[in-house]
Amino acid sequence: MDIGWIIMISGINGGNCILSSMAKERVKSGIIDHAQILGMKSAYTVVFDGSQWNGEPLVLSSSRQPYEPRIFKSLDGALAELLRIGLTEASIKITDNTDSE
Question: Which backbone phi and psi does 36 adopt, to 5 degrees?
Fold first, then answer.
């Protein structure tokens, strides 16, 4: 039975970006248990389901740019990072960047 919980936890500096090390600890403690990979060819981001801060979902960031979402060039890279974090479930949503007018 899904009761629709939304966890309110901030990432770095009170923002909605979260480092892999922070996400790994939250996976270990059971706070995060699922993620989505969103994007298009050569531009994928990881968003953690059910975890929000100030109305925005937590997004994986890199240690080089901790205040911006991390962009993966491939689905394999994003999936490998989720496995390193300890997640075994993820959904993938691929978007199309072309305008159909």
Answer: -120, 140
Tens-place pLDDT, residues 21-54:
999 999 999 988 999 999 998 999 999 977 666 7
Contact 40, 95 (CB under 8 A): yes
pTM above 0.70, yes or no: yes
DSSP the chain: ------EE---GGGSSEE-HHHHHHHHHTTS---EEEEEETTEEEEEEEEEEETTEEEEEB-SSSTTSB--BSSHHHHHHHHHHHT---EEEEE-------
> Could you report the per-residue pLDDT of 61-95, keeping only the tens digit for each?
998 998 899 999 999 999 999 999 999 889 999 98
Strand pairing category for 56-60 and 43-53: antiparallel
Residue 55, pLDDT score? 77
